[in-house]
Write a structure and sequence with these properties.
129 residues; 3 helices; SH3 type barrels; seven-stranded mixed beta sheet; alpha+beta
Length: 129
């Protein structure tokens, strides 16, 4: 049985994470990289299913400068893999595909209640996951 208080390297974990669990506060702001290690953006926030408790999407911020002109793209949580060497999440897309993905700006919030919106996101990312 794994020790929930030690990292894979045997170092003690902070109180807000275990080897399997991490606080959402620590996920927000975590870097997202492409497969080559190029930084794409950061996790802005998570979208969690209220009924089953599963994280469905990591909404990644990208582009812009100092928060001005940023766009946000929802990535299906299952498309992200945590890389301990990078200290961030890796997604199997390049910047061009990311820029064509369903996204929104600070003043154009999505309608998460629209099942069609979520289906468009899932359909777009399905081949990449």
């Amino acid at each position: 049985m794994p020790n929930d208080t030690l990292s894979a390297a045997g170092r003690p974990l902070e109180a807000d994470e275990t080897d399997r669990l991490i606080s959402s506060e620590k996920v927000d702001g975590t870097a997202v990289y492409d497969r080559t290690g190029g930084r794409l953006g950061t996790v802005h926030h998570l979208m969690i299913d209220k009924y089953n408790g599963h994280v469905e999407y990591a909404v990644m911020s990208f582009g812009g400068f100092l928060g001005i002109g940023e766009d946000y793209t929802p990535l299906p949580w299952r498309s992200l893999t945590y890389d301990t060497r990078l200290g961030g999440y890796v997604v199997g897309v390049d910047r061009n595909r990311l820029e064509r993905a369903p996204h929104y700006g600070r003043n154009t919030l999505p309608d998460w209640a629209d099942r069609g919106y979520r289906e468009r996101i899932d359909t777009y990312w399905m081949p990449a996951v």
